[in-house]
Amino acid sequence: MPLAQTFVLYLLTALAELVGCYLPMLWLSKRGPAWLLLPAAASLAAFVWLLSLHPAASGRVYAAYGGVYVAAALGWLWAVDGIRPGGWDLAGVALVLAGAAVIVLAPRS
Questions:
Q1: For 80-99, how does the pLDDT look when each residue is reduced to its tens digit (9 = 90+)?
Q2: 108, 64 Cβ separation under 8 angstroms
Q3: CA pair distance 12, 47, nearest whole angstrom
């Protein structure tokens, strides 16, 4: 799978996971109605399905996905929670994305 396609798939997967976790949190914190649990369940099902679309070994996919998830979560922090990530947040994202890149781009025999 081409690298750009892999990244987009990871990003969609992260968004599905974030939405699937955010909506129940709204309900649990009494900031949203119980019906939000239905789209949350659908979003988490989409998250699992999207992870299954990667052709690489599942452990490697999960490990590399973790880096993209951290970056997406900080984007969510800014876009949804209105909190701008700081320098340390950005440094951490750079480190985890570098680790994810090593996992994804490593030569395989």
A1: 999 999 999 999 999 999 99
A2: no
A3: 8
